[in-house]
Amino acid sequence: MTKERQLNRTPAEVERENRRLHRAVEELSVLNDLAREIGASLDTEQVMSAIVRRSVKAVGCEEGAVTLIDSDSKPGPQGHTLVRASAGTTDHTAFHVKEALLGWMLLRKHAVVVNRPREDDRFPGASWDPRVRSILCAPLLVRGDLIGVLTVYNPHDPEGFTEDDQRILSIIASQSAQVVENARLYEEERAYELVRRELELAREIQVGLLPGSRPAIPGYDVAGAGIPAREVGGDYFDFIPAADDRTVVCLGDVSGKGLPAALLMANLQATVRGQVHVDPRPSRCLARANTLLWSSTASDRFATLFFGLLDPAENALEYASAGHERPVLIAADDSVRRLETGGTVLSFIEDATFDDDVVYLSTGDTITAYSDGVVDACNEADEQFGEDRLIEVLRERRGAPAGRLIEDVVAAVQDHSGGAPQTDDMTLVVIKRSG
Fold first, then answer.
1. Using one digit for the tens of pLDDT, what is the confidence trace for 287-320?
2. Segments making up each domain of the chain, as ranges
3. What is the signed CA dihedral for 255, 259, 264, 269, rounded to 10 degrees?
4. H or E stretch at 227
5. Is 371 exposed, middle or buried (0-12, 13-18, 19+ CB in 10 A)?
6. What's the rounded Cα separation, in Å, for the pair 398 and 389?
7. Does the model's pTM come out above 0.70?
8. Closest to 271 (Cα-Cα) out of 202, 349, 206, 347
9. What CATH class is the domain 210-433?
10. What CATH code is assigned to 16-181?
11. Which uninterrupted H or E stretch holds 33?
């Protein structure tokens, strides 16, 4: 505008220019205050609440809200949405962004004014809250991706939202999006860290539940080891002293993975240990443990268990299996036998019964019990390690001490898998008659 034109402006033009300048100053003040308030915060709720409050004030309306979009879950075409913050000058229930508007935002990713929503042919068939007169939405974009929507409702001006309102809300949304994303990522990182610490504690507790040392049994070399596929797992092994210098040797595998499996594993251990002191005979102990687990475990949870009662005086192992992988007996003469006697898995049938059997061990005989994670371990070609490979290793290394034999089996499994990630725990127990 030339100097002459500036001098010849009408009072109306001067008034409009003054209003424009006043509006610009107010907008700058809003943006400055908002930047100062949210710039130093990493609390998602505080950040978004501040954005909504400043937006409501900036455009002069009844209410505003931030709706976040979780594109990872995607239960529907617009992804999972969650109103994380809202504020307004009324006491009624907060408005929610309609799916029609969210779909519009996902497709176009720029601000939209809807001053007469029921008459707007851009949203045919959409149902609107009867209290909604006007809507203004602006996208929260981070690197071109829509992470949320900033929405304000019902301006104090009866004519509806203006282009100036749309412009300032777009600026607020543009400047706020990365801050919201940073706060959300920080929130997720804190939640992940909390879960990680809890898993570390759970692992420490679970490791503490497993035997800290091998049992000292005259004439026998006994060892056990477990390698969880995750921080915590559902495999279980134990050495439990019983009456008359006998020792219970057991190995179990509960359904599921992670913390739920670990909790059931702890329940299984406590149940079995409690029953050993009542009567260590395998079939009776498994029957009582099954009844207790059935009454305290969800219907979709169960456990397999190999239970052996070793009597060194008789060189006898009395055993029963509750649906577990069949332990391998490698005799001193290199013959192979599988220990199969038992019954169904624990916590599947309330009144399940189990059968016993006895094997007598000669010097050099070795029994290896294992979880299915050993034989099910796969390589990158999805080929399982399998029982044949396991038996081959056990036969080749049958002269090794119990602990070394376990290490050799684990090494063979890991060599077969070639670094491919495993989804199941690996646990082994070896009973070797050494004299």
1. 999 999 998 888 888 999 999 999 999 999 999 9
2. 16-181, 210-433
3. 110
4. strand 220-227
5. buried
6. 14
7. no
8. 347
9. alpha beta
10. 3.30.450.40
11. helix 11-39
